[in-house]
Design brief:
The protein is flat, with a radius of gyration of 55 Å. Helices cover about 30% and strands about 30% of the residues. It contains 22 helices and 43 strands.
Length: about 850
């Protein structure tokens, strides 16, 4: 048994010291050696569990062993995998155990730091509590405290009662005299540094003694002063010092009571320490110890009153009443001037008496809900009332009124009305039992909720819903018997050429499977069937499971219904032709011969089809690799709008099979829209809506009688150039007509292709040149407008405009019209009298004729200087 002794010493004892917390590191918990192997792990785990069973006989290990066994059930899959040779889950858990152990130590260290606070001091009891609840050994926690310079010690025993009965008056006199405490009253200016109160009185210099001589010296000093109110208060203090009370004890109580008063005013540890050292002049070390002791006292006031107040605040009223009785406190307080402990004792006894009456009333109450509420009221008054909580836990709620169970395939769904009881927390637990109804919550297999996903098949089942409150349970509400007889699952029918094949998964408890088609039985096995049937017709099947009841009779389920339409294999489309509709460039007409079997449709592939022609492939594969196109039937084929470039593929579909047919390479180059050509002087501006998904276009044009250039000689315009220039500019003489066409272009398969073009024409404009001449003597000058052109014609309208100033007229409305003529022959001359306007001024002609462009003479001929 050497292994057991070593395991108790190295594992169980440290775990028990850590609050019955099992070690997180599985190497320690199961005493695993380095270099793990599957057989070695299995043997060591078995040996450790045997040690647990032997150690459980000792009461001190029982709680720890129960926790180890409970957690082992969750760890069992790791060891099972290790026994099979797969050590990876165990290695991962071992790494995680070390990390959890580190996190636990970190949390315990943080709690230790919080408990130590500003004073950096904790009590051994606090160390014990943190170690127990934090799952860390006390020795390790003490080592962490030493590392963090936290002192572990018991609080000093400070006096809780005044050694002098009228000390409250003494403190009032000290406050009036402006002294900090009794030592300050005795020594005054001679007290030049911090004083020590614990382990004996001490002051700087070592010549100050807290004894009768010091009291006599202080009394002599005050006797020499003239009598006034201050000497009266000094006499009060001297009376306390001469009363025979222990002077160091009296000084310690004075300082401790002042600290307790600050604590009652919600002062923090840091504020208390600063008050003790700076205001009261206590040595730093003694100040820390005194503040630590005051903070750790049972109550703010300490003593019996403090203990009573702490018990009442914690809700332990029964314990407070017992303490009051054991301390001999009277049963009733004496009035407003009664001691604090007497008032607290009276409060505890009053609350206890009320709670006892409620408990007695609940014991005689027949209604469990009303009794539960009475006990709840009693426990709110006295949390530790003996027997009340146990009695309350034994009060059962009212049972569930009704429960309903419905079979849904291979599952059972439960629904019920909640228990009418409203007192306390009422839970509903579901149990299932085969063969008979459950009698209570433990009589059957518990279920986690209203859905039973794995009920026994072909067995009479009863379901009970039990209302539970505390440790008590009501009588179950029962539904049943139910028989779960599921149909075959995963039913699938496959239609072929003149045959239908069926497949399914038969329940293990079923005796056989029955298949019926159109009212007639079909021979079938346990897992499927196959039969010959006519093509082109839909056949309806019902697949049922057959079970045997308790008497051996066959019971047939409703079954699963499915349909299939067998057909001949699809025939491919062997040849097709495709051409773009001239009136609608986006429409493609595909012509082909109708296949003998199956339905022809068109799909678009981005790449050449990966299947050979006439191949039979699953339809879902074709759908995955291509895009199905919406087609319109037309004579001899289908009309389709591909919308993109690619390969138009004809496939023939029958059921879930597709026959690969011929295909056509389609290039999607839509024509430009809204082509506009405008003449702007010696240029023609061309604009249009750029076709989508096209990067360049080809522009071809013919000027006058010149032959149309070849496509290779056409101008290629990119989208970037078009957007930058705001269109296309063609240099065209004004007296020449121009015809142009624009077509989308691109490169497909290494060759240059263009889409359908759009065309436009711009008519020629005849240039008419004019000149304005002045002639005649100064007193009768005339103006002559001389018109010339390359060919004879007539101007529809001509106007001569005069404008004074330095700015030339740009339209007829910019000046005075000197003359207006219609149907003016060209070439020719027009005469009129010169105007009498003062120079300088401008003379300019304007023509109103769309077929004519009027060309101005040089500017010096239009401007008249004198």
């Amino acid at each position: 048994m050497a292994f057991d002794d070593d395991y108790r010493r190295e594992v169980l004892e440290p775990a028990r010291a850590a609050g019955d917390q099992p070690p997180e590191d599985l190497r320690v918990r199961y005493a695993l050696a380095d270099g793990l192997t599957g057989p070695a792990v299995a043997a060591r785990v078995k040996q450790v569990r045997q040690c647990w069973r032997r150690a459980r006989g000792q009461l001190k290990y029982r709680k720890l062993i129960d926790r180890l066994e409970a957690e082992h059930r969750e760890l069992a899959p790791l060891f099972t995998a290790a026994e099979r040779g797969d050590l990876r889950p165990l290695d991962a858990r071992l790494r995680g155990g070390r990390e959890r152990g580190e996190r636990r130590r970190s949390r315990a260290r943080a709690r230790l730091t919080d408990a130590a606070g500003t004073l950096k001091m904790v009590t051994p009891a606090e160390i014990e509590a943190i170690a127990r609840t934090g799952g860390v050994a006390r020795a390790e926690l003490e080592r962490l405290a030493a590392d963090d310079r936290i002192e572990v010690r018991e609080p000093d025993a400070l006096p809780t009662a005044a050694p002098y009965p009228a000390f409250r008056k003494v403190q009032e006199s000290l406050d009036v005299l402006g002294t900090r405490h009794l030592a300050d009253f005795l020594f005054g200016p001679r007290l030049t540094g911090p004083i020590r109160l614990l382990d004996g009185f001490a002051a700087p210099g070592g010549d100050l003694r807290l004894d009768a001589d010091a009291v006599a010296a202080a009394g002599a000093t005050w006797a020499r002063r003239s009598r006034d109110t201050s000497t009266t208060h000094a006499d009060t203090v001297l009376a306390a010092l001469r009363s025979g009370a222990d002077l160091p004890e009296l000084l310690r109580y004075d300082v401790a009571d002042r600290l307790r008063e600050r604590l009652r005013q919600r002062a923090s540890e840091r504020a208390l320490l600063r008050y003790a050292t700076e205001d009261l002049g206590v040595d730093q070390g003694d100040a820390r110890r005194m503040v630590f002791s005051v903070v750790r006292e049972t109550g703010p006031g300490g003593g019996l009153a403090g203990r009573l107040r702490a018990l009442l605040d914690a809700g332990e009223v029964f314990a407070a009443a017992e303490l009051a009785d054991a301390s001999g406190l009277p049963r009733a307080a004496g009035g407003a001037e009664s001691p604090e402990e007497a008032v607290l004792a009276a409060e505890a006894r009053h609350r206890l008496d009320t709670a006892l009456r409620l408990r007695e009333t609940a014991a005689a109450e027949r209604d469990p809900d009303r009794a539960h509420r009475l006990l709840s009221d009693a426990l709110r008054l006295v949390r530790d009332l003996p027997g009340a909580a146990a009695h309350q836990r034994r009060l059962p709620p009212r049972p569930v009124p009704a429960v309903r169970a419905d079979v849904d395939g291979a599952t059972v769904r439960l629904s019920w009305e909640a228990s009418p009881s409203t007192a306390g927390e009422v839970l509903h637990q579901v149990v299932r039992r085969a063969g008979r109804a459950p009698r209570d919550v433990r009589d059957g297999e518990p279920l986690g909720g209203p859905l039973d996903e794995r009920p026994p098949v072909n067995v009479p089942l009863y379901y009970g819903v039990v209302a539970v409150r505390g440790d008590a349970a009501a009588a179950p509400a029962v539904a049943g018997p139910l028989l779960v007889r599921p149909d075959p699952a995963e039913v699938e029918l496959l239609a072929g050429d003149g045959q239908v094949t069926g497949r399914w998964r038969c329940p293990a408890e079923a005796a056989r499977v029955v298949v019926v088609r159109d009212g007639r039985a079909v021979p079938a096995g346990r897992d499927g069937f196959r039969e010959r049937v006519p093509n082109g017709r839909t056949h309806h099947y019902r697949i049922c499971a057959v079970y045997l009841d308790s008497a051996g009779r066959e019971v047939v389920t409703d079954g699963v219904r499915a349909s299939a339409t067998p057909s001949a294999p699809p025939e491919p489309v062997y040849e097709l032709s495709a051409e773009t509709d001239a009136s609608d460039p986006g429409l493609v007409r595909v012509a082909f011969g109708a296949p003998g079997s199956g339905t022809a449709e068109l799909v678009l592939a981005e790449e050449p089809p990966p299947w050979p022609r006439s191949a039979l492939v699953p339809l879902e594969e074709v759908r995955r690799e291509t895009r199905r196109l919406a087609c319109t039937p037309v004579p001899g084929g289908l009309a389709v709008r591909p919308g993109a470039s690619g390969w138009l593929l004809a496939v023939t579909v029958a059921e879930g099979t597709a026959a690969i047919g011929a295909y056509h390479r389609h290039v999607n180059l839509p024509p430009p829209r809204r082509l506009v050509a405008e003449r702007r002087g010696d240029h023609v501006h061309v604009g249009f809506d750029w076709p989508p998904d096209v990067t360049e276009v080809e522009l071809a044009y013919r000027i006058g009688a010149e032959p149309r250039p070849a496509a290779a000689a056409g101008e290629v315009v990119t989208r970037a150039a078009y957007d930058t220039q705001g269109g296309v500019r063609l240099p065209v003489p004004e007296d020449e007509p121009v015809e142009l066409s624009v077509a989308a272009a691109g490169t497909v398969g290494g060759s240059r292709v263009t889409g359908p073009p759009v065309t436009a024409e711009v008519a020629a404009r005849t240039v008419v040149r004019y000149d304005v001449l002045r002639s005649g003597p100064p007193w009768r000058r005339t103006l002559t407008v001389r018109l010339t052109s390359s060919r004879p014609l007539r101007l529809a309208r001509l106007a001569l405009v005069l404008r004074t100033g330095r700015v030339m007229p740009h339209r007829p409305a910019d000046g005075e019209t000197l003359g207006r003529w219609e149907q003016v022959p060209v070439p020719g001359e027009l005469s009129l009298d010169a105007p009498a306007a003062a120079a300088p001024y401008w003379l300019r002609c304007f023509a109103d004729d769309d077929a004519v462009a009027l060309s101005d003479p040089p500017v010096r001929r239009l401007r008249v200087q004198r």
